[in-house]
């Protein structure tokens, strides 16, 4: 089920916390900073001048408030926003108090970027003979096995010997 806020994306001028919602929960995303700029935005408080940050991963920009600027400064160890261009940082959602009500808000993280877990499953040496037998029987191709599994140099050599 999608966040109700996604129904308004065509009329929104900036992204909100809903862009990080997946399956009813907020996630984090590593983003790349492309540029900063000033623009006007109209909301409940009327029309206001705001500072925006364009992130490579999103079509719409994000309002970059003072809290996020402080986090950028801390993370990159610099107060010069030009030094942030082209660099990556983790974007997440935090609940903030607005007029006594908890509201989700986009926030940059000052923690180191989490390394992505390998998407390929590692084949243990004791399990490799089964994979080798599958290739020999034609149940799977070497190319498919290499696409879907992390292989050691020794395992790759054994697969190459089959082709000879």
Explain what you see.
The protein has about 160 residues and is an alpha+beta fold. It folds into 2 domains: about 5-110, no CATH class; about 120-164, no CATH class. It is about 25% helix and about 35% strand. It has 4 helices and 9 strands. It has helices spanning about 65-75, 130-135, 140-150, 155-164; strands at about 20, 25, 30-45, 45-55, 60-65, 90-100, 100-110, 120, 150. The strands form 3 sheets. The chain has a 5-stranded antiparallel beta sheet, covered by helices on one side. A two-stranded antiparallel sheet has the order 1-2. A two-stranded parallel ribbon has the order 8-9. Strand 4 (about 45-55) and strand 5 (about 60-65) form a beta hairpin. Helix 2 runs parallel beside helix 4 (about 155-164).
